[in-house]
Amino acid sequence: MTHIMRYMKRFPLVQTRMTKLFAIICHPKVQLHTYLKPPKANQALKKYLNSNCITEALLFFRELMRKSPSTIDSFSFLFVLKACTQKHSATGGKQLHTLIIKFGFEPIIYLQTSLINMYSARGNLFDAHCVFDEITCKNIVCWTALISAYVDNQNPRKALKLVWQMQMDNLEPDNVTLTVALSACADIGALEMGEWIHAYVRRKEGLHIDLSLNNSLINMYAKCGDIVAARRLFDGMKKKDVTTWTSMIVGHALHGQAEEALKLFSKMRGINKNSRKHKRHGDCGSSLIVPNDVTFIGVLMACSHAGIVEEGKQHFKSMSEDYGLKPRESHFGCMVDLFCRAGLLNEAYEFILEMPFKPNAVVWRTLLGACTLKGNVEVATEVQGRLLELDPGYAGDYVAMSNIYASKGMWDQKIVVRHHIKQRRSPGCSLIEVGTEINEFVAADEDHPLRSEICTVLKHLLINMKSFGWSFHRSYCWCFSR
DNA sequence: CTAGGGTTAG
């Protein structure tokens, strides 16, 4: 054994080849790290990660665990955790957590933050929060990790509460925390909170305002109904990237301003052509902006909301032909929506059947909704059959069907469908105040179980009303009940 | 060698 060790010491180049052999002869407890020091093993892990070879990274780690556990240090876990977060395997993460405890690396804050991220990616907020609670000296980074965990898992209210709690803990939010918080505001249409954050951003000295923060601001204003403020910010930004452009295009599309959205899209492509020209002349190559698949969602949404079918079709084709982007399920969903809104029910139906995906309930429901509007019983019956297979418990589909039958005077069928609705949701009542300007609203009942749903409905209502150029100047009180 | 962030159909 000593001979081999000496040999390897003298000729480091043969080291890698020898390691395998060596590992087999040796008991794992032998101090291998003299020959394969942690930084080397970690660099290998990092290399796998950077080249997107996630499975290989995990396998490499497993080999290390088996053959030379002593080469593993706390940094190794950081890389492996990252790999594990990207790969959504169910048990791997928990096993890693156990190993971290076994190795005694539990109190290292870098690892704890990574663990929060890992649990969040699996939708396991309970364990994410547990890890957070165990951190003795909490810093801004682990707070932000937890906040973004709640945003990513559709609990923006809790996220905003945590931002508040963090400040109570004498920690000032930085640009990353604020970016996440703005995203939470956008989710619930909390314009007031968003504006407060914007004011904070401008007031706070030494705060680094970067692209992500600006993009998040644009998105917040657009989603909260103030498209003018969003556009003002967009026009004022010197540095823009795909996300900036995409956010603005989606914003206009949501507000029904299809023309503006499509104008922006062609302007964006114009920049592309110009900078390619510049690149040929040898300067200004860095500002190249290539639309991605999300950009096309915005473009298709714009076409759909404006009812321009032909242009929508063209963009859908151009997506894969000119940009090499493979349309995802949601792009096909946009196209179905495009046909439905234009009243082309048969075209929508055929499109769904030709999709390379198994159509989901949402897609069929879009078509069913259009059938309700058009009073098309034939297509609706067909669609309902599909929905019964996919999601039989959804009461809304029965309601839609019953409405279609009612509109055609087919009362017998209506009663049959109505009977299928077994559990009705309990009726609720909420009061919503709309102030002098229609870009803010408050749900009066703070603890109402449907509060967040009502706010979402209102948010969309508000966006739609604005797109029709409606505005209110008196104070309004609406009462919803069901 | 080290942890957190922005855009996504209905």
UniProtKB/TrEMBL annotation:
<dbReference type="Pfam" id="PF13041">
    <property type="entry name" value="PPR_2"/>
</dbReference>
<feature type="repeat" description="PPR">
    <location>
        <begin position="210"/>
        <end position="244"/>
    </location>
</feature>
<feature type="repeat" description="PPR">
    <location>
        <begin position="139"/>
        <end position="173"/>
    </location>
</feature>
<dbReference type="InterPro" id="IPR046960">
    <property type="entry name" value="PPR_At4g14850-like_plant"/>
</dbReference>
<dbReference type="GO" id="GO:0009451">
    <property type="term" value="P:RNA modification"/>
</dbReference>
<dbReference type="InterPro" id="IPR011990">
    <property type="entry name" value="TPR-like_helical_dom_sf"/>
</dbReference>
<protein>
    <recommendedName>
        <fullName>Pentatricopeptide repeat-containing protein</fullName>
    </recommendedName>
</protein>
<dbReference type="Pfam" id="PF20431">
    <property type="entry name" value="E_motif"/>
</dbReference>
<dbReference type="InterPro" id="IPR002885">
    <property type="entry name" value="PPR_rpt"/>
</dbReference>
<dbReference type="GO" id="GO:0003723">
    <property type="term" value="F:RNA binding"/>
</dbReference>
<keyword id="KW-0677">Repeat</keyword>
<dbReference type="Pfam" id="PF01535">
    <property type="entry name" value="PPR"/>
</dbReference>
<dbReference type="InterPro" id="IPR046848">
    <property type="entry name" value="E_motif"/>
</dbReference>
